[in-house]
Amino acid sequence: MSRSYAKPWKAGPFDIRLPFLHYRLEWQDYTQGLVMCAVDLSAIPLMTELLGMPFEAALAIVVLNGLLYLLHHLLGDPVIPGWITPAIPLLMLYVQEFPEDQRVHALIAFQLLLGVFSIVLGATGLAAKVVRIIPNALRAGIVVGAGFAAIQGVFAAGGRFDAFPWTITICVGLAFFLLYSKVFQRATHRNRFLGFIGNLGILPCILLAVVVAPLFGEAPWPTIEWGLSTPDFVTMFSQYTVFGVGLPPAMMFVTAIPTVLAAYIVVFGDVLQSKAVLHEAAVVRTDENVVYNPNRAHLIFGGRNAVMSVFGPDTTMCGPLWAAMHVVTSERYKKGPKAMQSIFSGAGSFRWGTNTGLFLLPIVSLVEPILGVALALTLLVQGFVSIKVGILEARSKTELGVAGVIAAILALKGAAWGFAAGVILVALVYTIDFFKGEDDGTFAPEAHQAEDEAIDELEHPAR
Q1: How far is 274 from 323, CA to CA, in rounded Å?
Q2: Phi, psi of 15 (to 5 degrees)
Q3: Interstrand relation of 9-11 and 14-16 (parallel, antiparallel or unpaired)
Q4: Are 37 and 363 in contact (CB under 8 A)?
Q5: pLDDT for 449
Q6: Terminal CA-CA length for the chain
Q7: Which string of b and e fits 55-76 if b means at least 16 CB within 10 Å?
Q8: What letters, b where the CB count within 10 A reaches 16 and e where it falls short, cover 165-185?
Q9: How high is the pLDDT of residue 1?
């Protein structure tokens, strides 16, 4: 006989859900989270390279971010949250414009501004209207440019590819095969084991790197240590937060605005994807009324960014969605209450698992030598997705050409230059149709129909 769980507690726009009281622990999702924390750990090389941060201090930021991931399902947002992955290259370009001793200030200003901006949009419900006024060509250029920057960052002279050429080549090849090969996708429907492998995203590639990198002499064999990890919160607070370095100069908030807007365009795409995946699952699981509220999501991930900007500025940022794992969880959720009691039990159990894994020293020490490879894998896969999605934001051949120029400038010079060039180009090409653009039928109507309907629904929820 299945146990009944209490109804969530209402608290303004939030629905509070606690483990065991409001949902059960799903051991499959919890176990998967234990291992998938390796992806969270791959944020560490970004902080050590960009900010000169010690490993243990960077681990403290990953742990703090991990705890804030729990807020989504605890407050009623039925998703697995993650980084703002497509915007990471844009933030890297922005932060690198500053001398190393000013980069923490630049990161604090950026993330605090992004957090406050998202909270305001969530509180006012203006998110869809803000995105509406950004021309299609400019949106396309920003997303494609983020993809260019991600790939460029891996292959730049002295970058991660130069450090791990064989490992990245082999592991990225496997990643693209597992994620995008039609042959493999068909095989997953016939073989349960292959289906399980396919649901793990890039984790098999990360584990393969643990073996491949030492074989090619690109990293040492891991030294497995036992016990609990030791994140260094003291160094993090004293040297990398406002408590140690003080508040950024006002001008840094101004210079961060273009990068914040670029990052938000990416974030809004994740919000639309969250809604689409949950809607598809709700058609199958009629036993649970899952309501995705984009304004509530904005309040939560906006709040996470604001908190992290003060207590642990994070180069991966706080996004509303880990797309791959959200899809994997939703697919298992579709199998019924016996497979997963609630979408909240699946999402919550996974994030409880990743948080546990971050404190297990055997897992941290296993992947530590190849975290640079893990980050390169993440950026290359995200580059592929961003370019594919960004191209489809354009509505005509001319818009696609404008987007290509914007993307190239943005990838080479940063978001401020990309935005400025984009506004000028769109104004010169479309003049009075600046906000409207054009649709010459280059892309099939269905390429944009779902996005238009989703934005329209967010803009007019009463319909």
Answers
A1: 8
A2: -120, 105
A3: antiparallel
A4: yes
A5: 59
A6: 40
A7: bbbbbbbbbbbbebbbbbbbbb
A8: eebbebbbebbeebbeeeeee
A9: 42
DSSP classification of residue 288? S
**DSSP string spanning 82-128?**
B--GGGHHHHHHHHHTS-GGGHHHHHHHHHHHHHHHHHHHHHHT-HH
Could you tell me the two tokens for 108?
């604090």
**For residues 292 and 68, what is the distance between their CA atoms, to the nearest angstrom?**
19
Structure tokens belonging to residue 144:
């494609």
- Taking the model in full, what pTM does it have? 0.85
Question: 10-residue block means of pLDDT along the chain (463 residues)?
Answer: 77 91 88 85 89 93 96 93 87 90 95 96 82 81 85 83 91 87 85 79 84 92 91 94 92 93 84 80 86 90 96 92 81 84 92 94 88 84 81 85 91 84 89 78 61 63 49
Which residues is 82 bridged to in the sheet?
A: 319
Q: Where are the domains of the chain?
A: 26-459
What is the residue type of 34? L
